[in-house]
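Internal tracking record. Fields below are filled automatically when a chain is submitted to the structure queue. Please do not edit lines marked as system-generated. If the sequence contains nonstandard residues, flag them in the REMARKS field before resubmitting.
Queue: standard
Priority: normal
Entity type: single polypeptide chain
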Amino acid sequence: MKKTLKVAVGIIFSIVLFFLFIKDVNKVRLEKISGAGHGGRYAEDRTLFVRDAGNFQVGDTIRVRPAEDEAFIQRQVTEVHDGHQETVHYLIVDEAFNEVLDPEKGAYIQFPRLQRALSQANYLWLVPSLFLTFFALWVRAFRWKFFFPNYRGLSVNSLWVSVIIGYMANNVLPFRMGEIIRAWIFSRKEQRSISQTFGTIVMERVFDILSILIIFVMFVFYFSTKDDVTLPIWLIRGAWVLAAVSIVALLFLLALRFFTPATLKFVRIFLKPLPEKLSRRLLQLIESFVQGLSIFSSLFATFVAFFLSMVIWLVLAFAYLFVFKAVNIEASLLISVFLIVGLAFAVSIPSAPGFIGTFHFVGKEVLLMVGIHANVEAYVLLAHAMAYLPVLVLGFIYLSLENLTLTDLKRSIKPFENIKPHQTDITPSNGTGYDREVSGNAIE
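SYSTEM-GENERATED OUTPUT FOLLOWS
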């Protein structure tokens, strides 16, 4: 019952976010008072000031709503003035307005800009985006091997197939169950302990978080030096804090791995002032984390894994950059990186399978934050489709080649329910069955 409730909450939350993403998709807000009485110098009663004129063309028929309780007025666009780097963008229509169009009173333009953006998109740009998306997944599979002891004997093909099926499962099953399924698939193919394999995936997430924080900090510091970009002061201060946190966290991980006794001794001293119960739990958590770190067989493997983590995010940034080109949005690579950072944090929010709704709403808000307004909905829809559909199709192909079904994947999750990972080791048997053996240590 509790699990069903969590799934329902996640799905409802995703539906709400997707509704917020799509509800104003054809609404173009006025930048300031337009129409009659705005005091402009050119065709003052036929002018509409908009935030971005890139959606419009001469000859477009638009509908203008003077206020929330008034009917729409239909007009035809005769001139489009896009200020590009300037702040003034405006349209000239064929017939004068008798009304003062005040955005504070609910005045706006209704225009099918999503449909236009999708119809005019250059879908050839999605080809390199697709290639880079799969390349990033391959790098992720290759990086995964370095999280195992004696990684040199691992099959990259087994890692690759497991990653694709796991990501496919994340797109169709709740609770990111694809991570457990990925561990099960790989353990089934390579006859390895599932608990050890799942531990490597947990460590992957730690490295992902650290690398994405570092990229985020680099982004903020870079843009804070640009005269044409104004970042909020809280964002710059937050970047300094995150930079310090990232460095300390990275040093702490290295110390835990390679100087374990001395680091744990320091931790015990640091935790001593805390209440005994809290101190004991934190120490147990850190000691469990040390077990996870022990999967690294060498300093070389640790640094290679971290380097490849950075590569994965940068490759994805280029993949997202090509989607910008597909919908005719001028954006830098660093804006693409910033979008990935926002989405990386967004997918941690409870949501429906495939992060539907969460991905869309957060993606749109991030683009608006960096000053991109035209074609944002089209971009987010295509970016999500590129991350969702190809993996879904390829995942089901590999699932068929492995002679498995979704029912088998769901069954693979059951041994993990209501069992603490550090208490139980589940080793795959031949075929699709399971042999359970209890172990005091999840990391063998």
